[in-house]
Amino acid sequence: MTVDLNKVDEILSKKDLRHESLIHTLLDVQDELFYLPREALERVSERMKIPLVQVVQVASFYKAFSLEPRGKHLVRVCLGTACHVRGGERILDQLKRILEVESGGTTRDNLFSLEAVNCLGCCASGPVMVIDGKYYGMMAANKVERVLKKFKGNGKESIDDKS
Amino acid sequence: MIKVKTVAELEEWREKILAEHRFTEPSVMVCGGTGCVAVASDEVADAFSKALQEHNLQAKVELRVTGCHGFCEQGPVVVIHPERFFYVRVKPKDVKEIVEKTIMNGEIVERLLYKDPTTGEKIKFETDVPFYKKQKRILLRDSGVIAPTNIEDYIARGGYAALPKALFDMESEEVIEEVKKSGLRGRGGAGFPTGFKWELCRKNIGDIHYIVCNADEGDPGAYQDRGLIEGNPHCLLEGMIIGAYAIGAQKGYIYIRHEYSLAVKLIKQAIADAKEKGLLGINILGSGFSFEIEVQLGAGAFVCGEETALMASIEGRIGEPRPRPPFPAQKGLWGKPTIINNVKTWACIPQIINHGADWFSEMGTEKSKGTTIFSMVGQVKNTGLVEVPMGITLDELINGIGGGGTNGSKLKAVQTGGPSGGCIPENLWHLPVDYDSLIEAGSMMGSGGMIVMGQGTCMVDIARYFLSFTKFESCGRCSACREGTKQMYMILDYITQGLGREGDIELLEELGQAIKAGSLCGLGQTVPNPVLSTIRYFRDEYEAHIKEKRCPAGVCKDLIIFSIIDEKCTGCGVCLRACPEMAISGEKLQPHLIDEKKCVHCGICREVCKFDAINVI
User: To the nearest whole angstrom, how far is the Cα of A4 from the nearest Cα of chain B?
Assistant: First the structure.
């Protein structure tokens, strides 16, 4: 897969290149490319004059960053304490079963990536599952399949509902 | 509106805004906090916009998308002003009726009112809802009333009045003195007296001083800081500007989790607006004092809530803590004196300056002053954000404001302080909520997360849950924390699988002490708390797992068996269809049966059964 470095250059051109902007820059790059490919990290390192090893260190330390390509739809399941006591684990188990991936993995058809996260901060509507930024509150394991179905077609739902 | 250059111009502007009577005219407040957006409050707001236009009311009735109302359980929340009719769980299809009945004719839509679960009474007004009635909302007073995107709303409610008072009527030292006198302690959890910290920083002569707002709210189950920013971002800014003046800082940072996209957007807008109006930036209100604020995003590392790790992250490095001393107040960001305070701490400052230290210190207990905000979640009836004076008992909070367990169920414990805190059993709920009592009980205040647990929560599983969290979040610098959390997790995991051995409890206790002693930062030093506190209060549950291979709460998958109670099963077939392993069989209208060989103990059948016919032992 070729990486569109023009997008990286565009982001870098809008940023000041101080060391303290590194995390922000990487977040923006990832927003564009959905993950952080090596080529992008090299370009960031070069332009910001930060040794590549430090850029990679930051990119691998923070959980928000992914060094692997992700699926078309990102499914996040909250396992914060409030969701945990309300059965968040069951939602995750059901997703693993349906998608046939472990948490952190991507389905073979590259349609879904599954991630367990610690708290999305809407504990009152727990258990919560988020697909491409859209929240599904008060989830139950037997509702999971129905929600996923919406994303299996042409993927239009995710684009329309992205918030 | 042009820049405000003097205090007189600010007051003139305020007069002008007040003359518009924006809070006494008819208006619709739709909650736009993340909790309500998760249940589609944005669609409700759109529906209002359309309906008001259809009736040609858009000029007469203002539609205001506010921040969090706090009562997230009942979202989307809509309040109709000036009467303050309170509608809950509003759907887009209800909007037409609200506009036609309530707004045009002053009639109430009965079915959308909140029903008090205890008395069954329908409540008309926001102020009469028991959830709000028993609170003391000072920091949250304007959340849910003002539009967080509109600086004029904040000004109309008396905002940016403390700022000129501090800048022109008080010396920096007097501001610090006032904060010291108020008895305010850091709301991030540790409870260090704020005024003393500021004084320490001010005394450190350096060419530049920094201040930081810690909004890296990583505790699972806590979202009060996010709620406050989404509800009233300017109160945080005003607090920071006053603090910067007191300390002598020129630059401030707000460090906020990138996951909080709405809060990030709102705080950035608030900064831009305050700057445009001259309340932030160069020569604020003509005082000669200049101050800038920048937003830095966290990228998902729990340890960055620890102040030295947070500073490393702001500098663009990995979030690894360093030893203290030197404290950040002496050597912080880029080696310069730095003050780091939590969102709620900063938000208290304008209140203290406006009303005085005595007013503030009248609330609370002898050593813990003022109010604080909790996010009360879990198996409690009324979940949401609550603001209460320090010193309120856990019972008043959970059974009073929270309304007790969901569906009237009996409660077991409350977890405070996130992964650094502990579980406090129900028989200790007479304890007051303040820094010192909670530490004595083996937990801590923490940043304000409060997770209520019912009888269906296994305490060993909860301890395991927190260790799985901290094992993953440990930055890896100190071996006691890095390796110790792994070992504790493994032991707990074995116990929940029925592989626990005699002596495991003692081993956990010993490990816990070793991790506390051998870790550099607050994360490692408090990591064992969830385990130690559950052992302290629920030792019998641990013993049941280890000795009898039994999970009394029916949670640990390897120790439970699912079966169907014949007398209760109606043979409706719901569980049969829901079972992912097709382990349930049975004829229609006949009691069903679970095949133990196929059952994976996922619990879905119990979740879907309407007749309580699934037995777990």
Answer: 23
Helix axes A52-61, A22-33, angle to 10 degrees: 70
pTM: 0.92
Domain assignment of residue A17, given as a range: 5-61
Residues of B in contact with A24 (CB under 8 A): 296-297
Mean pLDDT value across residues B474-500: 96
By the 10 Å C-beta count (0-12 exposed, 13-18 middle, 19+ buried), B548 is classed as: exposed
DSSP secondary structure letters along B532-543: HHHHHHHHHHHH
pLDDT at A158: 41
Which pLDDT tens digit goes with each residue over B179-212? 999 999 999 888 899 999 999 999 988 789 999 9
Res A153: pLDDT: 67
Sort A159 into a burial class: Cβ within 10 Å, 0-12 / 13-18 / 19+. Answer: exposed
* Contact yes or no for B465 and A84 at CB 8 A: yes
| Selection from B487, B476, B488 nearest residue B532 by Cα | B488
Please list every residue in chain B whose beta carbon sits closer than 8 Å to the beta carbon of residue A26: 299
SS3 content of chain A, % helix, strand, coil (to 5): 50, 10, 35
CATH 3.30.70.20, domain B561-616, yes or no: yes
Coil, helix or strand at residue B143: coil
Residues A78 and A157 in one domain: yes
A43 and A106 within one domain: no
Which CATH number fits the domain B10-129, given the four candidates 3.30.750.200, 2.60.40.10, 3.40.30.10, 3.40.190.10?
3.40.30.10
- Predicted confidence (pLDDT) at residue B13 exceeds the cutoff of 50: yes
Smallest Cα–Cα separation from B495: which of B457, B455, B462?
Answer: B462
DSSP B83-114: TTEEE-S--GGGHHHIIIIIIHH----GGGBE
Q: Is the pLDDT assigned to residue B219 strictly greater than 80?
A: yes
Q: Strand, coil or helix: what is B449?
A: strand
Best residue in B31, B36, B39, B598 to probe A by mutation, most A CBs within 10 Å? B39
Which chain B residue shows the shortest CA-CA distance from A76? B259
* Mutate: best of B46, B73, B74, B259, partner A, most A CBs <10 A: B259
**pLDDT confidence of residue B462:** 94
Shortest CA gap B386–chain A (Å): 12
**Poorest-confidence range of B148-152, B489-493, B602-606?**
B602-606
Indicate the residue of B260, B375, B415 with minimum beta-carbon distance to A123.
B375
Q: Which two tokens stand for residue B449?
A: 């997360």
